Please model this.
Amino acid sequence: MNIRRVAFDHPDAVKLNDQVQAEYHVRYGDGGDATFLDPSDFAPPNGVYLIAYDESDRPVATGGWRSQDVNDKGNEDGDAELKRMYVVDDMRGRGIARRILAALEDDARTAGRIRMVLETGTKQPEAIALYLSSGYAPCTKFGYYRFHEASRCYAKAL
Model:
């Protein structure tokens, strides 16, 4: 497994983002995640976007973080918001998401962020299990979906 930094608008990132949006549509029955994401949100030192490639150089997983500070959506100073964690179907269950999550946490910590936060939904139980087993705890809701019943927010000190 080879994990690389890429731009959020890199062709492989776009391909995987399309796949995760399709999965959100299947799970939630809407048009996907409506959270606005600008490619510049993931440009170091204020964020990073990672793609894991398998031994044949196929993009198989993705994840990123972006800086968030106190704002009208409920973030706190020093937050790093986790976004677009995704592993393609045939590569799930191999610990890839956990490796990307650890790399993102390390990168955000190095960038001076003090807390990693994320929002997921009740129809993603495997994601919730990953975060809980990685030391995340429920926190005050934040972000675009903070008023939605199915939204769940988690945080972990870095």
Observations:
- Residues 11-28 form the longest helix (18 residues).
- Helices lie at 11-28, 96-110, 125-133.
- The mean pLDDT is 93.
